[in-house]
UniProtKB/TrEMBL annotation:
Pfam families: FMN_red
Protein name per UniProt: NAD(P)H-dependent oxidoreductase
InterPro entries, sorted: Flavoprotein-like_sf, FMN_Rdtase-like_dom, NAD(P)H-dep_reductase
GO molecular function: FMN binding; oxidoreductase activity
Gene Ontology cellular component annotations, sorted alphabetically: cytosol
Taxonomic source organism: Streptomyces liangshanensis
NADPH-dependent FMN reductase-like domain sequence ranges: 10-145
Amino acid sequence: MPHPSARHRTLVLSGSLRIGAVTTQVALAALAQGHPGHEVALATGLDQLPLFNEDLDTDPALPVVAGLRAQVAAADSVLVLSPVNNASISAALKNALDWLSRPRGNAPLSGKPATGMVVGYRAHSSEDHLTAILRATGALTTPAPIPVLSPRGVNGDPAAQDPNVTTAVSQALAALRLPDPAAV
């Protein structure tokens, strides 16, 4: 039985490297959703990862790779957010997921509950691409109740204050929380 003060920790991976991007605003909305018993943190270092190259996938891992892997390993679940880029997820996010799918047999995403959401005017089935990639990494995918968020719904206000965004993020985080064994 978990200790009463045990917390569920969700790590948010934002596939947008631009500070003011709507996807980044959605990530910040997720951070604002944390509450007692559920900590939400934003992953760092995605902007510093080299392009995935098996020649660089060494033991010990490059420091930036090791740092990202440690962040994911320390989380209980992962919320993955991506802008829609050319009918798919962002290259930065795909690169990070490639690094997180290694080392084979001991990857930090393997067996980790994860869900993904995409942010774009048209999804072009990018939410399906994201789910397929998460499954390929070994993550245990949980469908996001609202897998696509449109920037049109934000209306110029920060996403953290938009009720459509906060509802979608809240539902995604709730889907990731593990049931309390004491309640079963």
